[in-house]
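INPUT
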Amino acid sequence: MRGRRDYLLGKLIRYGFTLFLILSLNFALPRMMPGDPIINLLGENALHNDPEMIELLRAEHGLDQPIHIQYIRYLCQLTEINLGYSIHKNLSVVELLTSSLFWTVLLVFPSDVFGSLLALLCGSLAGFKINSRADYLLTAIALSLYTCPAFLLAMLFLSLFAFHLGLFPLGNLTSGGKEGIDYLLDVVWHLSLPVAALSLLGGASKFLVVRNSVMQISDQQFVVAARAKGLTEGRILNKHIIRNVLPPFISMVALSFGFMVSGALIIEIVFSLNGMGTLIYDAVLARDYPVMQGCFFILTIFVLFANFAADMLYAIADPRIGRSS
Amino acid sequence: MHPSIAGLVSHAPLRVAGLSSLILFLSIALFAPLIAPYDPQETGSPYQPPNAEHRLGTNDIGQDILSELIYATRVSLAIGFMAGSISIIIGATLGMLAGYYRGRIEELVMAISDVVLLVPGLPLMIILAAYLSPSMWNIIFVVGLLWWCSTTRVVHSRVLQLREMPFVEAARSLGAGDGYIMLHHILINCKEIIQAKFALAVASAMLTEASLSFLGLGDPLNISWGEMIHFAFSRGGFANDMWWWYLPPGLMICASVLGFVMISMEPERSQKALEL
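OUTPUT
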């Protein structure tokens, strides 16, 4: 099992290095970018204070000290889960983030699962029956979704299904005033349209990859052998082809997590869900830099952990990992 | 029809379709002042629905939406082209260096691209774009700088195959230097991959630019399609179901991105390039 341990260790080092880079980037950006770091760290509203107060704030945030001391101070603050303070919203950034992150995860997770399953299902069908009518139809749909910006699809969904047909709510996460199972069903009802949009967006790009891998594997000798043996087409697809597509598919699903989060941010804004996307949107409009940075930081950590978990799963799912090395 | 053109159409119908749609968009961009019925800056009475004078109505400050749409073609295409070029230049150079020299350089380049691939792109771009002043050039710079990884990986794996080929060895034994081999033998043989990746990079750059502009990070002096939708969304166009304001720029984005994606498709290995 030495090979596998080396594999996991290598991954761990890679993730640790990425985490370190992200932390440093988060530290460097407000100090490096044009403009007064005090604005970049406290938001534009900080300048409404009088000059003495600004100097006081500067000292309080250690901005008058040498850069390496600032960096150590910054790392210490992180261990205390302190991401700064939003003067604009009058709340600490961590407080703002915790509830938003929950809703974003609630949007991203089911969408990732549905989108991946949809892609696997349609992709293997289209790849197996390449150049058939079903293949052309599915590929055409996937391509149009692939070229459609997330916000446009969300706006079309909202306008069509919620505004004109009245099947779904126009936005928000709940109607309010409900408890227990009613509350849960209400949230599901509110989330179904955004989840559908995000699933389709995420599924479209994965579909094309699955379709191609299935197409390539279908040409190989062992598939011909299976067919010669008299296996049914369904059995060939399920037992022989999809088996071989699964490991690269899992790693692709993991890598697409960042993409899904990006899509979720945009979709939340259109559906006015109180997640990270809306938080970032408000922060961008108000130039509330601490909130923006906190969001970036949390999202990156979240994506990193998701990828790390997927890598571990991958090592368990594919027994060949680490054997060759 | 000329026989070779007919042959091309039947051989690669998607490419021809993509190319013609792009020529159409390019001519709209080039001849914008001739096609647009009004000056897009000119203000009139606001929130008009489509009528005989204003085919797509007017926006919140009474500018003609059709003219704005035509002029926005310039901005969207320019940002897509330039950001795509930056990312392809970085991506192809790094991929070639990593694949050709291998060793330390390869490890370094692959490690960097691993890290960049792990970071969620949009949030980082939002932060960078928010810190920098809202201008077209900053968007080009931000998008171009973060989209090179997939190009690097594809070029890298292609160069790995190429460098072991007999003709490269032959060139080396004739005394050709590394620079010469890379320019005259490796780069030439990566041409098709780079072309396909360039088309895809422009497509992704246009989509990313649209998202950034939709968030209100676009250049207020150079309105792009994404920014038109931003205004439609934030100034009541969407809430009041004024589809003629947000739908046309959205369809323009879809059509132009689709054009670039179709160009990148090779007839025999369709959508192969889309994989990465």
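end of record. Chain A has a mean pLDDT of 83.
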